[in-house]
Amino acid sequence: MVVGRLPKVDNGKQIADVYNAGYHIEIDGSDLNSEAIMLQSFTGIASQLQPGHGVTFNCSFSDQELWSIQFPTVLRMCKEGMPIAGICVGDCVPPLKAIVGVIGTLGAAGVRHVSFKPKDADEILQVVRIAQASNGFPILLQWAHKRDAPFSFDGFVRPLLETYAAVRSCNNLAIAVESRDTSDFSDALPYFTGEWSSKYGRIPMPIDGVLLDSSSFTCSLCEKGRAVPTGQIVYNGKDITSAMDGLYRSVVASVIEQEYVLDESRVPTVEYIGNDPRKVLLPDSVHVESSTSEEVFELPDDANSLPEHEIWLQALGGGRKSWLQQLLTIPVVIQGNR
């Protein structure tokens, strides 16, 4: 995950490049103070995303005036098929009663995960309680050292050691860390394998993800004008694509070894059902009449002229989402029967 200076929405190309390269980044929502600005900004980013990718929006829950604008707008964008993958509540860890209903509403709208950034051990445990009360909805806990203070054992390591067991007791809670080490990708592997905790006399404590400093991590195109081929990852002016691929393969191998006893056949396969816009090309033999309230398909008498089943399903699902997501997330009515 790329963190540090949260990108503004006007850096749409940079944001899309990070997502399209397979990494995660959050969009700074501090300047998005109207529905019109949010819709315009996210539409521009969404147009540059490859199918299957979605954006995560960093918003302020403690600023209730701003939240009252951003929260309903996010729900509207989800309803309209905008690829909103996640929400990060970046300024606080809200009270349990205040946030659980919000998470349920976001999940029902199609948001896939919600993140929090606790500042101490007590707030880490509050995130655990939120995850436990969220009916299995995916929660991400981002743990970082304080940027305005020097790195310390008490400030970063001790809270993580003390709360790790509680975090791992919750299956829907993932954790990503940023320390003084993970600003450099080469020091990230011990967090994935869990070896980072061994030097403190503890058993290995694997972490799910790391937060890489955005000031030194450039993906596909540097906005300062340095051209980089698409899909290339640059760190301090050096191509580290192969090194990052090696890190990814090491993590996958470690998970297969620890969780599936080196048996790749046991690794589950999950079909993606998120926002995945599809262009529908119906044959000329199918006549379509559209109005504001309905769409009528007039089929040919010749069965041989009917569309292939995949094309037909996508036509029924519309172009904003895959037909599978439409089938699973909206009421389906065929000739008056639900």
Descriptive account of the structure:
- This protein has helices at 12-20, 35-46, 64-79, 96-109, 121-132, 153-168, 189-193, 241-260, 309-317, 323-329; strands at 2-3, 26-28, 55-59, 84-89, 113-116, 139-144, 173-178, 209-210, 212-213, 217-219, 233-235, 238-239, 287-290, 295-298.
- It is an alpha/beta fold and 338 residues long.
- Strands 2-3-4-5-6-7-8 form a seven-stranded parallel beta sheet. The protein has a three-stranded antiparallel beta sheet with strand order 10-11-12.
- Strand 6 (139-144), helix 6 (153-168) and strand 7 form a beta-alpha-beta unit.
- Helix 1 packs across helix 2 and helix 9 (309-317) crosses helix 10.
- It is globular and about 75 Å long.
- The two termini are 42 Å apart.
- The model is unreliable at 215-230 (pLDDT under 50).
How far is the N terminus from the C terminus? 42 Å
* Backbone CA Rg: 22 Å
- Work out the helicity level: 25-40%
- Mean pLDDT, rounded to whole units? 77
Summarize the structure.
The chain is globular, with a radius of gyration of 22 Å. It contains ten helices and 14 strands.
Descriptive labels:
338 residues; alpha/beta; seven-stranded parallel β-sheet; three-stranded antiparallel β-sheet; globular
Please give the structural blueprint:
Blueprint: E1 2-3, H1 12-20, E2 26-28, H2 35-46, E3 55-59, H3 64-79, E4 84-89, H4 96-109, E5 113-116, H5 121-132, E6 139-144, H6 153-168, E7 173-178, H7 189-193, E8 209-210, E9 212-213, E10 217-219, E11 233-235, E12 238-239, H8 241-260, E13 287-290, E14 295-298, H9 309-317, H10 323-329
Parallel strand pairs: 1-9, 2-3, 3-4, 4-5, 5-6, 6-7, 7-8
Antiparallel strand pairs: 10-11, 11-12, 13-14
Helix pairs in contact: 1-2, 5-6, 9-10
